[in-house]
Amino acid sequence: MDLHRRQSVFSDPGGLDIAGLPRDPGSLARIVRDVIIHRGEGERFGVTLPEARLHEDAESRYVTEILRLLGERSDRPLTERREPAERFVGTCRDFSLLLCSLLRATGTPARLRCGFATYFVEGFHEDHWVTEYRLPDGRLRLVDAQIAHGPYDVDFDPLDVPRDRFVVAGQAWRECRAGRADPSGFGVSRLEEIRGLWYVRGNVLHDLAALNGVEVLPWDGWGPEILDDASLTAEDLALTDAVAAAGSEEELRRLYRDPRLRVPDEIVSYTAYQGVRKVTLRPR
User: Fold this and answer.
1) Which of 139, 140, 147, 269 has the fewest beta carbons closer than 10 A?
2) 3-state SS record for 253-280
3) Where are the alpha helices (DSSP H) in 88-213?
4) What is the pLDDT of residues 66-91, one digit of tens each?
5) Burial letters for 34-56: b for 16+ Cβ neighbours within 10 Å, e otherwise?
6) So where are the chain's domains?
7) For the Transglutaminase-like domain, which residue ranges apply (predicted)?
8) What's the chain's Rg over C-alpha atoms?
């Protein structure tokens, strides 16, 4: 069975009635865009988002939690556009996870990709997540539900994001390791302390986990605590090199069985609003 056709514990929509959902990725991306607002988009939409939602919504790891919160705020069907005050206040990962969930639910193999976007801040590779789905002919396509329509102006089709505009984490790592890219240009643009090779490594691990159906939060971590380039060891570099060089899904699954890479039941969450804390994930 196709791993990316099957729901994960994170993407599982529970009892969601999918009968009224469209099947094409573009329409599904529009639905997602119309029920989620990024917690950094308040000014862009001309609204002040409730402080509690900024702190709490994006800590929702599972689609069932996203759908529960949406249901509590409005009885509108998922296919109906919501005003910003009724939306889930999340991050790029939440747009990508909900779209992935709906694609899988309606029969399209899909998965999350963690990497860096070049279309938010000129000259910088911004930490970002998108959805990747498989076309009927087997080709893979990237779609960014966050910019699918609305208040963004990009020079490409958000339903077919070019691979040089969204750089998957493994490619970013290879570029940095080969000296073709400066690691200080990868991370979170507004925070100088959250960028560098160590951060690229973290996204490589998040991408590997997502490719194996474990779509954790962007600030979740496991294994040795590495929060700067100086903490990277020769073993860390070699192990990340191996992941970034993997050329097949079979190899990625083999690598993920390594306990140094696999997401354990208990992870550390470096939350922006709630501090560093340990979290036990739902059984997988």
Assistant:
1) 139
2) HHHHCCCCCCCCCEEEEEECCCEEEEEE
3) 92-105, 169-177, 197-211
4) 999 999 999 999 999 999 889 999 99
5) bbbbbbebbeeeeeebeeebeee
6) 25-280
7) 86-140
8) 18
Separation of alpha carbons 76 and 86, rounded Å? 10
Q: How far apart (Å, rounded) are the C-alpha atoms in residues 67 and 101?
A: 11
Both structure tokens of 23: 């099947």
The span from the first CA to the last CA of the chain, in angstroms, equals: 17
Q: Record the tokens describing residue 105, joined without a space.
A: 């639910």
Q: Beta strand pairing status for 220-221 and 186-187? A: unpaired
Copy the structure tokens of residue 214. Answer: 């474990």
pLDDT (tens digit per residue) in 237-246: 999 999 999 9
SS3 22: coil
Residue 175 is which amino acid? E
The two structure tokens encoding residue 231: 């903490």
Q: Which of 212, 180, 248, 219 is CA-nearest to residue 94?
A: 219
- Long-range CB pairs of 233-241 (<8 Å, 24+ gap) are 236/201, 237/177, 240/173, 240/201, 240/204, 240/205, 241/173, 241/177
The kind and range of the H/E element at 234 are helix 234-245
pLDDT at position 150 is 78
How many whole angstroms separate alpha carbon 170 and alpha carbon 241?
Answer: 8
CA distance 222 to 12: 23
Q: Are 42 and 262 in contact (CB under 8 A)?
A: no
